């Protein structure tokens, strides 16, 4: 993707119209209450649009329509090949409108246009295509039962699914969830984060254009308590897939327990270690990975490398190189393609991140914050400090020094979370022993990343619960297993078991 100039992006931004109403049963409509809320450009504080503030009555309507769509089979019982074709048409429409969607995403979230163009949009398109292409290549199973029986183990779409999304990757998290959910044949109720409702609404419009039948994809903007909780507690929603904070994830378990025991998948926070051992090779490359892992998306990333655990022998040399790389991450107007760190998503989140800059850690780099923007910051911290323990979710890297491999692994695991980790070493045995020993859903060796659409993503402990996003494993979230047992014998049964 060739990037445009700052002026060209500003011109696109000025020409955009914003989708502002809920999308239910194939059409846009205001919230039943008529209420709206402001969605704000965090880089400027400007109100971009007033968006429908949905509530319980909108959730009830959307679920009823989604249920009708699911039960009459207009989508759920189509041959998988036909669902695939519609989803590929959607992916192509997203591609055709990628520039506009990237600008919309950047305006609504404060993410840099650089990232929206080079990561969020291409990965969103790839994810939709990957799950669409998968769906007509999955086979069910026949169990090794006796000659007198045949036992089919089949997967069926789970039904009506609530998808509750975060603000840090509004489109990409939507794709991680609707890709497999729609491919499997489910009907979905999407709740975008209240900070970033615009691209999900625009995508709904494109889905309609692609030929997705009414009722199959519904998008309800609104707050957590007013839309998220009614989704979590709804008696006719079969499953919920949530990405966001651990605190809200716990609520979804409570909602499910206190309603219909819907299936729940939670993808939550992280305090992810980047472990660098004395024998790491090519420190310059290691430093580039760590800077990218810590500061990409302004650190607002559940898999951000937010703890650098470095063996003492290599610490000074590594930090020197990290400083050099971090200086190549300019902060500023998200629509200027030279900038790599944009605005934090909201004033409330900015204030939260700033609270971690004000406490007694030693500042190695940065530390300045102004009007929604935070500089890439590196802090040398004590092990029991808030910066070492909490998910800051900003461009803040906490440095901890260790003596040995064993101490590094123990410190990497000294967290309630277990989402992602990276390990840098030139020794293959330490790489594999370390990767096995670190409790995290994804461990990258001599690199930072989350894998791509082909690999399952999710965490352990306070980072994750239930299924996985991405990869074939994501399909499991949106399907359930049924056994169909057929007796082939002609004679009467001797005993029934
Ligand atoms: N795992 C991840 O990717 C994310 C982690 N976070 C973490 O969470 C912290 C707080 O960010 P928030 O935006 O407040 O996260 P959050 O967990 O409150 O929001 C995520 C989604 O849950 C919904 N929600 C909020 N309260 C709810 C409730 N009571 N019932 C049902 N749904 C509810 C929100 O409207 C949003 O759609 C961040 O600072 C960060 O540490 C935030 C976003 C994404
Ligand atoms: N990094 C993708 C998942 C998340 O941050 O929510």
From TrEMBL:
Key words, A-Z: Oxidoreductase
GO molecular function list: aldehyde dehydrogenase (NAD+) activity
Pfam families: Aldedh
InterPro entries hit by this protein: Ald_DH/histidinol_DH, Ald_DH_C, Ald_DH_CS_CYS, Ald_DH_CS_GLU, Ald_DH_N, Aldehyde_DH_dom
Oxidoreductase in keyword set: yes
Domain Aldehyde dehydrogenase stretches: 33-484
UniProt xrefs under SUPFAM superfamilies: ALDH-like
PROSITE patterns named in the record: ALDEHYDE_DEHYDR_CYS (PS00070), ALDEHYDE_DEHYDR_GLU (PS00687)
PANTHER family: ALDEHYDE DEHYDROGENASE-RELATED (PTHR11699)
Protein known as: NAD-dependent aldehyde dehydrogenase
């Amino acid at each position: 993707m060739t990037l445009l100039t700052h002026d060209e992006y500003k011109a696109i931004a000025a020409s955009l119209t914003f989708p502002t109403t809920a999308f239910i049963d194939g059409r846009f409509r205001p919230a039943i209450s008529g209420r709206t809320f402001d969605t704000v450009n965090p880089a400027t504080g400007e109100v971009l649009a007033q968006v429908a503030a949905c509530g319980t009555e909108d959730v009830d309507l959307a679920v009823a329509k989604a249920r009708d769509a699911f039960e009459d089979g207009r989508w759920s019982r189509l041959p998988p090949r036909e669902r695939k074709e519609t989803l590929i048409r959607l992916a192509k429409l997203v591609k055709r409108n990628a520039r506009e969607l990237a600008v919309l995403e950047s305006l609504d979230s404060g993410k840099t246009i650089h990232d929206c163009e080079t990561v969020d949009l291409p990965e969103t398109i790839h994810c939709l295509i990957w799950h669409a292409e998968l769906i007509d290549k999955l086979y069910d199973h026949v169990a090794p039962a006796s000659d007198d029986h045949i036992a089919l183990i089949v997967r069926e779409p789970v039904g009506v699914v609530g998808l509750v999304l975060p603000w840090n990757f509004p489109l990409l998290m939507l794709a991680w969830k609707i890709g497999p959910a729609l491919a499997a044949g489910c009907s979905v109720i999407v709740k975008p984060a209240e900070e970033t409702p615009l691209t999900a609404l625009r995508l709904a419009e494109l889905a309609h254009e692609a030929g997705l039948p009414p009722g199959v994809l519904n998008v309800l903007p609104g707050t957590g308590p007013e839309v998220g909780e009614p989704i979590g507690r709804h008696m006719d929603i079969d499953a919920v897939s949530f990405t966001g904070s651990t605190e809200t994830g716990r609520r979804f378990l409570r909602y499910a327990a206190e309603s219909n025991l819907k299936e729940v998948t939670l993808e939550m926070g992280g305090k992810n270690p980047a472990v660098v051992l004395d024998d790491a090779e090519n420190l310059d490359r290691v430093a580039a990975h760590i800077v990218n892992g810590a500061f990409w998306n302004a650190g607002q990333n559940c898999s951000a490398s937010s703890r650098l655990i470095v063996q003492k022998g290599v610490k000074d040399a590594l930090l020197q190189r990290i400083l050099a790389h971090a200086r190549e991450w300019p902060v500023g107007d998200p629509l200027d393609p030279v900038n790599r760190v944009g605005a934090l998503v909201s004033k409330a989140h900015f204030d939260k991140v700033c609270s971690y800059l004000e406490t007694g850690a030693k500042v190695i780099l940065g530390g300045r914050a102004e009007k929604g923007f935070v500089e890439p910051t590196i802090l040398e911290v004590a092990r029991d400090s808030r910066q070492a323990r909490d998910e800051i979710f900003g461009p803040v890297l906490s440095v901890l020094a260790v003596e040995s491999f064993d101490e590094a692994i123990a410190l990497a695991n000294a967290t309630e979370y277990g989402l992602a980790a990276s390990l840098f070493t030139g020794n293959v045995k330490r790489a594999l022993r370390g990767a096995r020993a670190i409790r995290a859903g994804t461990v990258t060796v001599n690199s930072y990343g989350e894998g791509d659409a082909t690999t399952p993503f999710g965490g352990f402990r306070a980072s994750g619960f239930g299924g996985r996003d991405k990869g074939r494993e994501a399909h499991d979230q949106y399907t359930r297993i049924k056994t169909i047992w057929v007796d082939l014998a002609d004679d009467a049964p001797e005993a029934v078991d």
